[in-house]
Give the backbone structure.
Amino acid sequence: MHLARFDIDLFLRDHWQKRPLLIRNPWSAWRNPLAPDDLAGLACEEGVESRLITRQADRLAMESGPLPEDRFTELRDAWTLLVQAVDHHAPDVAALIPPFRFIPDWRIDDVMVSYATDGGGVGPHFDQYDVFLVQGLGRRRWRVGPRCDSATPLLPHDDLRLIPDFEATEDHILEPGDILYVPPCFAHDGVAVGGDCMTYSIGFRAPSRAELVENWCRHQADAMTDEDRYADPDLIRQSNAGEISASAIDRMHAMAMEALSDRNAFARWFGLHNSLPKYADMDWRPDEPADRRTVRAMLAQGVPLGRNPASRFAFIRPGEPELLLFVDGHGFDCDGDAALLAEALCREPMTVVDAKLAASPAVVALVAALIDQGSLAFDAD
């Protein structure tokens, strides 16, 4: 699938992180990539994040998965099932991501899929991230409101962040293939119109300043020795022992800033941090380690390498080494042939490696390491 009728440059200029946009079916040929029963099956599995939203009187209630299989037969009235990171488990859903790769990969989070019966929804709310809401099956009415923030009043609720006084400024009915783009913090409310309503939410992430500061500081602090302390060998007597002098403040401030100011170290840390898997407890490693002779032979034969849909690949160019590749929280220093391979792996989900690179020990070692950690696999089919 690809976006056949969509002006990317115009969208980035006028709408990305600025204002919502309704995009009427821009696909070359839209088809719903997942059956409702398959989504329900995922919601019953251990290790898959899912939520069921039901209406009890005038109040929405939420249940977290995994859900028992017979739960769906008990449901009445309007309800909504939400399943996170479906792209990790369904290749046809993962195929929704490449058309949106005009946004850098490191910003992409996952594809959440929702199924709702007539009248089902999660209520008016706002998110802290950009999202493309792709209507897959059935119809959904989306109302979009103003931009919100942390001061926006919310209804008291243990599980849902709902806006009590929602006033829509836009009102759209989405048909299969239609897309609604919603920037961060814009209020929105989607309600199924008729049965079998499926929506695919392609979500993007952006680290908060607090997250960056907290994690970068913790990373740097963990690497410091206990002997790295404040020192004042040039101390002179003060007129008041209760004062923290300006010179002491200057010295401690310089200690802290110096520890955090290394841009190259920050870049390497962020690559590792940002590429951590969404679900760290999922183990995708193969039962047996990759045999390097087999790896070399398959590369020479042109067998494609496929990325694990649950894996995160990214790279930076620090200068020396030529390239730093980050995959699922691991970093790889690459230059020469290995750097060419790293770029190719980050460019497309499926890669056929130039057979000439099969003779490179660095290339074989990198491919074997990525196979062993479950991030990469040969696709013999």
User: Anything to note?
Assistant: The chain has a mean pLDDT of 94. DSSP finds nine helices and 15 strands in the chain. Residues 187 and 350 are 37 Å apart (CA to CA).
